[in-house]
Amino acid sequence: MFQNILFQSPTIIFGINAINQIGEQAKKLGAGRALLITGPRVEKTGVLGNVKALLESVGVAVQVNIQDRDTPEPATDVVERTAQVARECNCDVIIGLGGGSILDVSKMASALLTNPGKTEDYFGREKVPKRGKPTIIVPTTSGTGAEVTKHAIFLERASNVKKVVASSNLLPNVAIVDPMLSMTCPPAVTASAGIDAYIHAAEAFLSKNANTITDALALEAISIITKWLGPAFADGQDREARYHMSLGSLMAGMVLNNSGTSLVHAMAYPVGGEHHTPHGVTLSALLIPCFDYVAVAKADKMAALARAMGEPIDGLAPREVLERLLEAIHFLLKSVNLPASLTDLGISREATDIHQWAVEAHKEQRLLTRSPRILTVEDIELIYENAFD
Question: Is residue 95 a contact partner of residue 34, using CB atoms and an 8 Å limit?
Answer without folding.
Answer: yes
